[in-house]
Amino acid sequence: MFRLFKLLKPYALSVAAVFILVFFQSFSEVYLPNLMSDIVDVGIVNGDTAYILRMGGRMLMVATIGTGCAVLARYLSAKIGVGFGKILRSNVFSHVESFSLQEFDRFGTSSLITRTTNDITQMQQVTLTMLRMMLRAPMMCIGGIIMAVSKDAKLSLVIIIAMPILVVLIYVFGRISMPLFKAIQEKIDRLNLVLREVLTGIRVVRAFNRVDYEKERFDEANLDLTGTTIKANKLMAALMPAMMLILNFTIIIIIWFGGIRIDNGYMQVGDLMAFIQYVTLIMFSLIMLSMLFVMIPRAAVSAGRINEVLDTSCQPKDAEQVDGAVNDSGYSRKSPCPVGGEQISGAANAEDKGLVEFKDVTFSYPGAEKPVLSGISFCAMPGEITAIIGGIGSGKSTLINLIPRFFDVDSGSISIDNVDIREMPQEELRSRIGYVSQRAVLFSGSIAENIRYGREDASDEEVRGALETAQAAEFVFSMPEGLDAVIAQGGTNLSGGQKQRLSIARALVRRPLIYVFDDCFSALDYKTDARLCAALKKETSGSTVIIVAQRVSTVMGADQIIVLDDGRVAGAGRHKELLDSCSVYREIMSSQLSLEELA
């Protein structure tokens, strides 16, 4: 947990100021009973009104200074706590953004949300509490003990007996509560998971009349969290009465024996009153520590969960250095991509043209029994359309996701312009790619903002051009607001085909070297699909285009078709070539076209 407190470095001066203010606040609290003792033993006993007023004025001044320090310390503590939370949230979010899909799958979206919100809030609260109490409680305890001993050393033996009991009590409660607080955070993860699934899939839930079932599922997770939280709070709630009971018994014993010592002339009334206040200060300082022990176990669990995220090594990583021959761009160049035994010449050999080569690529997901892709080799040429087709589970989307390095290959290599993509900075690699995912993802905001997500400095004319190519201009400009029309969260106010076309326009406005379309035409009607394919071919004539598609009409006109079957290349070539040479391709075609259409 204390590792995270290094992030308080920007607030070092404020932390020092808080400690100084807390010191004076604690000093005033320890000094006030001594002044009160003098008023009773000197002023009241001797009837010295002037002395009483003088000492009373001093008490008022000390109390005012202490109150001012307390208010300022609380203000600075709150400012530091909120700032610490801001820095921690920013660090966690930045680190999570660098995760590959593998790390996202490992933690889960709901858990990452909980860690970024609830867990960091726990750290923020414990920081605020520690700043106010970490120095104050020990100072009050030590100062109270010193002053109590100075008043009556023998009566102070009562404190020595009471304090170990309180310390043991705090330790036992803290030890028992730690597993409960850990369980609470895990159950919050579970509750967020259920809630997120229900809210995201509310249409499906209602369509299948499963509202009651989802209520039961939510109630189960909610009651599980509630039960554990109540158990932890009951434990912590029992701590305070137990400590107050010990405090009250201690005061009773002090009054009992203090009265005896006053009667025997060893102690004065004012000293006994001050002694009781010092004992109260000592006990309350321990109660403050107990409050810390209530918060620290939960914060320690939260800190562990936050550190687990921050300590997770992000894969894939950028190469720190590149061995071998290095060109002017700083990348090692491989030999040109062979096609049919011949080497690509001219534009393909030039740098930054968008040549994509898969060379004996094998990939498997963590924990999988066998690779998803095995021995994949092909080239996607600049100025050509490469289509990837295959049955469900053949590895089409996985193959596409390897190009922008959402995952890294297990063996083999993927290169762009004869440079292994693992040797490129990820930011530069992805700047060369216009990617459209299988699931159309739009963000809340205007249509123009979503299109410019591909390139922030795109002009209105470029945005319009991308929309026209993506066959989206008609429905966009039929809206009263046009480009300023607001898209709801998740694009729920648009149809599936409209979302897909806007996603395609977002990639087009980027004008990258390589276009990657992952089955993003499935929601389009055949007429729109045909117009879009024709427009794309014209718009992307100088770029490398890689398309994953299920429709025959989308892949038939491709310059190269890669047929995948069970993670392997079953065939590669043009449409007519594959009809003659690839049985897998013929099966896919015959399932969609008649014999006459195939001929």
- What's the total count of β strands? 14
How many domains? The number is 3
Number of helices: 20
Top CATH class of the largest domain? Mainly Alpha
Record the strand order, biggest sheet. Answer: 8-11-12-5-13-14
> What structural category arises from helix and sheet content?
alpha/beta
Oligomer: single chain
The value of Rg in angstroms is 36 Å
List unreliable stretches of 5+ residues.
Answer: 321-329, 338-350
**What is the CATH H-level superfamily of the largest domain?**
ABC transporter type 1, transmembrane domain
The CATH topology of the largest domain, please?
ABC transporter transmembrane region fold
Average pLDDT confidence is 83
The helix content, as a percent range, equals 55-70%
For the termini, the CA-CA separation is 70 Å
Strand fraction: 5-15%
State the CATH architecture of the largest domain: Up-down Bundle
Tell me the overall shape: elongated
Structural summary, described in words:
This protein is an alpha/beta fold and 599 residues long. It folds into three domains: 251 residues, ABC transporter type 1, transmembrane domain (ABC transporter transmembrane region fold), CATH 1.20.1560; 173 residues, Rossmann fold, CATH 3.40.50; 72 residues, 3-Layer(aba) Sandwich (Rossmann fold), CATH 3.40.50.300. The protein has 20 helices and 14 strands. It has a six-stranded mixed β-sheet with strand order 8-11-12-5-13-14, sandwiched between helices. A hairpin with a 2-residue loop joins strand 13 and strand 14. Helix 1 packs parallel to helix 5, helix 4 runs antiparallel to helix 9 and helix 8 runs antiparallel to helix 9. It is elongated and about 115 Å long. The chain starts with 11 loop residues before the first helix and ends with a helix. About 4% of the residues have low confidence.
